[in-house]
TrEMBL record:
This protein's record includes keyword Iron-sulfur: no
Principal subcellular localisation of the protein: membrane
GO cellular component: cytochrome complex; plasma membrane
Family: Belongs to the cytochrome ubiquinol oxidase subunit 2 family.
Name of the featured protein: Cytochrome d ubiquinol oxidase subunit II
Any one GO molecular-function label of the UniProt entry: oxidoreductase activity, acting on diphenols and related substances as donors, oxygen as acceptor
Top-level taxonomy: Bacteria, Pseudomonadati, Bacteroidota, Cytophagia, Cytophagales
Amino acid sequence: MIYVVIAFLYLSILLYILFGGADFGAGIIELTSGGKVRTQVRTLTYKTIGPIWEANHMWLIIVIVILFVGFPAIYSILSVHLHIPLLLMLFGIIGRGTAFIFRHYDAVKDDMQQVYNFIFTYSSFITPLFLGIIAGSLLAGNIDPEAQTFSEGYIWTWINYFSFAVGLFTVSICGFLAAIYLTGETKDEAMKTVFIRKSRLFNITTVTTGGLVFIAAEIEGLKLMRELISQPVTLTALIAATLSLILLWQFLKRRSKVRIRLTAGFQITMILFAVSYLYFPDFVVTSNGDNLSLLDAAANKGPVDGLGWALIMGSLFILPALFYLIYKFQKENTRETV
């Protein structure tokens, strides 16, 4: 049952990046647009993610519950030594959510709309930035469970080149996914052209920041690139992600909605799979070499088995309803044009 729980953990992380990341990316797209385009992006974003944006945080909640119940030692290290970036990420989630609601449902349309827009767009950038910083910090090897000073225990654990590079990479992924997703949500050919151009731009940005991750890893002494290409499975995943770039640009040229989304999702999945496979079963890399493994740091058999069955049974009830919700609003959106 432990492997069922681990599978749900990694699947939830992947789905949060693919779906929740696209939601954050919508704000990033709005932030990097101007004039009339920004207004159109704002309108399309609301019609597209308005009904389901809150549901996408379900994947993050599942990750937290799995770590809390199934891997308490990992949850403790994460919530203690990385509490500052976690808090900043939560501020971003809260600020983005409240601003998203207020700017659409505020009874009075006044200058506060500008405040709501500011909070929404910059929170959409800050949240994935710190999400990536947290992910990078888990692998950077700077967490010291026996740290004696505040800076060693809570500051230098996440302030380093590698963690910030992963943060920028995550922001780029979110912008890329949002541009890909919004390309298929508008029937206006002019806006479709805008989103295709942004898809290509953010794809280039993703590749560039991905390169920065490898450079930062070398600076920090992680040897990430050499380890990835030294294993057949991870090397194959990286090659598949790279080759999918060619297909993606061809599908963008043809404006093939379904193929664009599937290729982009495959590309991101391969990248995450390569890194996850490389470090598995370790989830937290510590400075003293005593890494926290998902197998060794798991709770007792009773809680893990109970958690596994809860995840299986819960998915049978929740996932069909969630997919129906997405389908229903997608069907409604196809009747409208932007």
